[in-house]
Amino acid sequence: MGKRRVAIIGAGMTLFRRRMLETGREMAFEASRAALDSAGMEIKDIESVVLGSAPDAFDGVHMKGEYLLDGAGGVGKPYSRVYVGGGTGVFAPIAGWWHVASGAFDTCLVVAEEKMSPLHPHPQYAFWSIFDHTLERPLGTTLLWIFALEMRRYMHVHNVKEEDIALVSVKNKRNALDHPAAQLAAKITVDDVMKSEPMVWPVKRLDVSPPSDGAAAVILASEDVAKKYTDNPIWIDGVGWNVDTQYWTNRDLYFPEYLRQAALMAYKMAKIENPRKQIDFAEVYDPFDYKELHHMEGLMLADKGEAPKLTKEGITQRDGDLPICPSGGLLGVGNPIAAAGLMKVCEVFWQLRGEAGKRQVKKEVNTGLAQAWGDLMQVGTVIVLRR
Amino acid sequence: MPSRVGVIGIGYEGFRPVVSDLSVRELMFEAASKAYNDANIDPRKDVSSFISCDEDFWEGWSITDEMVPDQIGGARRAVSTVSADGLIGIAQAAMQISSGIGDIVVVEAHSKAADVISKDEVEMLSLEPSYVRPILTLDSLAALEMSYYMNGRKLDRNLFDKIVATEKKRGLKNPRASYSADIDEKDVSESEELIKPLKKLDKAEYAEAAITIVLASESYIKKEKKDAVYVDGVAWSSSLPWYEAVTNESNYPEAVYMKDSFKKCCKNAKVKEDLSSFDIIEVDDQYSYKLLQHLDALTGDEKESEEIAENMPDYLNPSSGSIAIGNLIEATSQARILEALLQLRGEAGALQLKRVTRALVASWRGLSSPTGGAIILSR
After folding, report:
1. B69 neighbourhood in chain A, CB within 8 Å
2. Residue B248 predicted with pLDDT over 70
């Protein structure tokens, strides 16, 4: 536990879309403004700003943090951009947490922005250069290839069928029908997923989240300040992050050990000894449907190989015993990398405040978790929130 | 307020225009190993968090943080990247320690600039893409600012010739100063002009190095009886770039980021906002005119800053500054912090000044950034 308690007192986000007309700066501004409005604050009330954004290659702007500075409200303030690839969206509020928990600042605006659409011919091209220049790039490796390997390994070790995994996509896209910012909400069936275009077997089109533009923001405050602005603060009780070796070929991909380590760090801080019982719902990172299952196991919300069974039994539905991705997740709401992770933190905040509208989970919730994942299948970021 | 932290280990490697015998990973490994040896710690057991300061395009990797953990002992540990210069990384580390993340946090920053063939194109990509990038380069931006500043301050080039000549010559005593030279003001005055009034010698040339700094909580330092240099205050701030909006009332561009940072840093450290509070000051000089502009921000008095720059006293940039050491990209401020730490530890060799107990490092992230910071170190 940090030296000071830190609360989230406001959250906001833009629409998530394949191509937004707004610039990155404008999206960062819109999300920040929405979060400030939600908290009843003005930018002058903010003492520090943390920005999260993934590769510079998306925007084609070097030192992207500096470029987004004024849109993100950082002018005249201590402003910093933190970065752990796809895990950034949950890591940015973790960085905001230490700004406040340390006693250095009483308030922190955390903004995550991603504008993937400027990259031509496709945002995936930004990921070509994430591979080792000597060992991997000459092979023409893509992210889809390596995730297909990971998905296949997971299926093999636990004897999981593609149909079992497709249930995640069906659930999340349907949940997203209730999200006003969602990009790819849909009522689909397992059959639709199975018949969708094969990309790299076993990954099919509907197993994957889309490229997106979007931004999200939250306001963090110390206990004293939080109580001045709201009667309903949501506390950050645990944070954890972990980065594994870059040499992903040297790891058994069936289980994300780095995520387990990140979760243990967060759980220790939040005094969680039995996550399955003590966490009421979770926004688990789901850029691919199999990743939700993989991550549930890494987070110890399910035993190894148990997540498909929980999904099949409806446990992870919004009205289930352990709702997972009630927002609709990346598969339904969209995947503007860093903003997608922070969208999950926003969703946990809204759920715990009972402000999620049609998306509100049925059971009473007191503890929620958001998680993100990134780099070369090597980053886990975890945040535990409580009412 | 955050609790006190101190530096218990430093390690560095490189400090050459081209480090041809080490890859970036090897360079980082060498610096980190030396820092861990210096701190007498095992990174696999003792370090709570690792921070690297870097940017994708300089590294040639998208999501460059992925390649950081292995060579600094951070694999399967809490590792993260701060896309900023080393001073801001140290500020994050201090906050992590104060938050209770752990007792020891490592901050790594490096430059492998020579690996980048098209540095000017990378630089250009930092400019705002619609209005600024099509019409400016970083050199033209620096020349414009220098001209704007010189006109506003009614200065001629002589002062900058003196700054460059003094630092280049001072660098002859510093083994880490790749661009030191035995030149005088006349040599600078007659040297190649990039874009009027900016000369090639006004600008810090790219160099390569890796620097690792190990920070620890005060309680750990006392418990383990470690030899430490304390971080009394650290602050950073961002303003708008002068070419996008005028954020000051003067008739020339000011380093607002540095003024803010220095003020907050002194407040944190409970030190009088006066340069006489420090035995040495390492002030960013990635361009010669920036040294004076930054001194303006630190003194709040044009005449005083001009007088200091005119005399170039030993306590100002005893390291010889970036003009002689080189531009180490995100490791630039870390290099100046390193020089201050060596002075405070009495390990600065031929550069060592007497009775150095408190140092100020004032940094700027470099063009086209409007971000800078300040750190106060004491022993």
Report:
1. 243-246, 378
2. no
Cβ–Cβ < 8 Å for B179, B171: yes
In this predicted model, what pLDDT tens digit does every residue of B115-165 receive, in sequence order? 999 999 999 999 988 889 999 999 999 999 999 999 999 999 999 999 999
Distance from CA of A70 to the nearest CA of B (A): 7
Among A126, A244, A258, beta carbon nearest to B62: A126
Give the nearest chain A residue to B81 (CA atoms): A83
Instruction: Give the Cα separation of A158 and A5 in Å (integer).
Output: 40
ipTM of the complex as predicted: 0.97
CA distance A167 to chain B (A): 31
Contact (CB, 8 A) for A70 and A215:
no
Flag residues of chain A having pLDDT under 70.
1-2
How far, CA to CA in Å, does A16 sit from each of A27, A113, A174, A209, A284?
10, 11, 16, 12, 18
Three-state secondary structure call for residue A57: helix
* pTM (predicted TM-score): 0.98
For B278, list phi and psi in degrees, rounded to 5. Answer: -120, 145
Tokens at A1, concatenated: 């536990």
Instruction: Measure the CA–CA gap between B10 and A381, rounded to whole angstroms.
Output: 29
Name the residue among A215, A193, A188, A373 with its Cα closest to residue A297: A373
Distance from A344 to chain B by nearest Cα, in Å? 20
